[in-house]
Automatic annotation (TrEMBL), chain A:
GO terms for cellular component: cytoplasm; nucleus; proteasome core complex, beta-subunit complex. The 26S proteasome consists of a 20S proteasome core and two 19S regulatory subunits. The 20S proteasome core is composed of 28 subunits that are arranged in four stacked rings, resulting in a barrel-shaped structure. The two end rings are each formed by seven alpha subunits, and the two central rings are each formed by seven beta subunits. The catalytic chamber with the active sites is on the inside of the barrel. Its EC number is 3.4.25.1. It is found in: Nucleus. Keywords: Cytoplasm, Hydrolase, Nucleus, Protease, Proteasome, Threonine protease, Zymogen. This is proteasome endopeptidase complex. It is an enzyme of class 3 (hydrolase). GO terms for biological process: proteasomal ubiquitin-independent protein catabolic process; proteasome-mediated ubiquitin-dependent protein catabolic process. Gene3D superfamilies: Glutamine Phosphoribosylpyrophosphate, subunit 1, domain 1 (3.60.20.10). The active site is at residue 20. It catalyses: Cleavage of peptide bonds with very broad specificity.
UniProtKB/TrEMBL annotation, chain B:
Its EC number is 3.4.25.1. InterPro entries: Ntn_hydrolases_N (IPR029055), Pept_T1A_subB (IPR000243), Proteasome_bsu_C (IPR024689), Proteasome_bsu_CS (IPR016050), Proteasome_sua/b (IPR001353), Proteasome_suB-type (IPR023333). One of its GO terms (biological process) is proteasome-mediated ubiquitin-dependent protein catabolic process. It is found in: Nucleus. This is proteasome endopeptidase complex. It comes from Maudiozyma exigua. GO terms for cellular component: cytoplasm; nucleus; proteasome core complex, beta-subunit complex. It comes from the Eukaryota. The 26S proteasome consists of a 20S proteasome core and two 19S regulatory subunits. The 20S proteasome core is composed of 28 subunits that are arranged in four stacked rings, resulting in a barrel-shaped structure. The two end rings are each formed by seven alpha subunits, and the two central rings are each formed by seven beta subunits. The catalytic chamber with the active sites is on the inside of the barrel.
From TrEMBL, chain C:
It is found in: Nucleus. The gene is PRE7. It comes from Maudiozyma exigua (Yeast). The keyword Manganese does not apply. GO terms for biological process: proteasomal ubiquitin-independent protein catabolic process; proteasome-mediated ubiquitin-dependent protein catabolic process. The lineage of its organism: Eukaryota, Fungi, Dikarya, Ascomycota, Saccharomycotina. Its main location: nucleus. It comes from the Eukaryota. It holds the Pfam family Proteasome. The 26S proteasome consists of a 20S proteasome core and two 19S regulatory subunits. The 20S proteasome core is composed of 28 subunits that are arranged in four stacked rings, resulting in a barrel-shaped structure. The two end rings are each formed by seven alpha subunits, and the two central rings are each formed by seven beta subunits. The catalytic chamber with the active sites is on the inside of the barrel. GO terms for cellular component: cytoplasm; nucleus; proteasome core complex, beta-subunit complex. Keywords: Cytoplasm, Nucleus, Proteasome. This is Proteasome subunit beta type-6. InterPro entries: Ntn_hydrolases_N (IPR029055), Proteasome_bsu_CS (IPR016050), Proteasome_sua/b (IPR001353), Proteasome_suB-type (IPR023333).
Amino acid sequence: MNGIQVDINHLKKGEVSLGTSIMAVTFKDGVILGADSRTTTGAYIANRVTDKLTRVHDKIWCCRSGSAADTQAVADIVQYHLDLYTSNYGTPSTETAASIFKTICYENKDGLSAGIIVAGFDDKTKKGEVFSIPLGGSVHKQDYAIAGSGSAFIYGYCDKNYKHDMSKDETVNFMKHSLSQAIKWDGSSGGVIRMVVLTKEGVERLVFYPDEYENL
Amino acid sequence: MAGLSFDNYQRNQFLTSKNSAQPKATSTGTTIVGVKFEGGVLIAADTRSTQGPIVADKNCAKLHRISPRIWCAGAGTAADTEAVTALIGSNIELHSLSTRRQPRVVTALQMLKQHLFEYQGHIGAYLIVAGVDPTGPHLMSVQAHGSTDVGYYLSLGSGSLAAMAVLESRWREGLTKDEAVSLAADAIEAGIWNDLGSGSNVDVCVMEVGKDAAYLRNYRTPNVREPKQQSYKFARGTTAVLKESIINVCDIEEQEVEIQA
Amino acid sequence: MNTVASEYSSEVQSTPIEHSFNPYSDNGGTILGIAGEDFAVLAGDTRHTTDYSINSRYEPKVFDVGDNIIMSANGFAADGEALLKRFKNSLKWYHFDNNEKKLSMSAAARNIQQLLYGKRFFPYYVHTIIAGLDEDGKGSVFSFDPVGSYEREQCRAGGAAASLIMPFLDNQVNFKNQYVPGTDGKEKRHIKFLTVDEVVRLVRDAFTSATERHIHVGDGLEILIVTKDGVRKEFYELKRD
């Protein structure tokens, strides 16, 4: 990259990392976020039931990958900004949330290792939206997004199997299969599959155990 | 200026390059655990503190009080765990006074993680934070870089793998207080016996809903030293007195006083 | 569908990573040899470690090598074993070549020096101590540095807790820093030979104390005692934390 490259990819020594498999998918009724639950320090699994799906507003959530400390700090700051925004202007759009995430990730790119997917359901448009914010701090609006070390293994699968306007069950099934494969082939991913479903009905949490997703 | 001073950083960097090693901080190569049970939460720790391979303190206290019902167990750099809990403990009390509410575990945790994140891991504190507050019992952990975890059972420190092996095999939902205490103590013992960074005794702190926290210092002492084979008392005069001088730091006046019965 | 690059593509290393094999490791433990008037002891703990882990709680490192000589090479256990094996082999050939002649302590010491110095530029990473009786039947202890420099001594501690034990020995075996009461430091306390029982008591206290303060010492204490009647073994439990 033109010889000017900031080393944004390193973790500080002994840092806890989310060598992750995460994704968010829009569907007919809204959007679903999904993630594995493994947190590692080197070879040790520091937490096998981690929750990488984090609320930043009632119906705007994010999937975190990269450094656990950095992504938690960023999510906390975004949550604060959205709280402030809400009391000043009312419910923020998903795009606004993604923009705040972007600003923080972009302005501090030399100090952060955070790969974040922002997903939200807009009660006005009745639409789910997904924004991917990879390492440098760029924003990419997508129908669905995958990220984290495990995502490398499921680009092909997702590309072949994603369909527009799927039903909730279809989407959950698609994500379960995708994350199952990501976890299977990525050593840094594992544990349970967590999902958060964002629709006009509200927020629903789902958990799938290895017994189920390993034998699909 | 508030906060830590990094004035000597460059000097130390220079000194290191001139081959004089930096002083090493006493690291509590530790085993600490936290366990949730029916109606409360507890934390436990071993009591060995080391400086490299040398045992600096055989019976140090790694359980710190943040507020009367929020306690935390510390691993990592001893000075950092103590300083950071004292600081947050102090701020929690001020916050509690100004809000007129009992302190909450999440508040302490959020203050800890923001402080640690600000210092980007340079404050080497790894803590298990636990306590009861108006919202119930809580168990969480913070790492030096500022990341936090929540769990029903947690372990940290160099003996965390040994302790976690015990917790993973024996923890279940709905443990009674007594079951949880012995599980936690056994987990610490696993660290004491199998991790060289941990040793000596087991400290426990039990926090039950609606009760005062019970700090059980030296709850188990499985490492009492056997008596020595002989006495090493020297005969008086074995150490030569080469020089003697007495300095009068004050003038002494004597006065006889008669006291009537 | 547009695709977004994963972190995968940016996993480039700007600084070169140096891969190198370190042939040495430290297996902890500590040893101690004391010579008496007509006996000698060599003691060692039985804990075997790497870093913060215990590999074994009973791995003897003091051995009877024959000819009333006991030996221990403490430090990197693999090198210690190799050195011991080579010395035992050397002793066997000495017997073959010299009609079963008994190897003297001084000859054994000189032989070990040759073995150690032979690897001057890739040393055995060990502190070696041997104990036995000299040609006059007096207790003798020889200690070696990793490359073969050696010395006959009254007592010597080696290994992890050597720096903790040695000052205690100086004071209790050679009565260093002790004066005869009432002489105002004019007259040093007179040295005398200790009995086997006294020595064993000192050894046990030295090891229980080292166990208290050094994390690489503990689990068990094995003492080998050489007298004119042969080699005797004693074992005592040490703390396991």
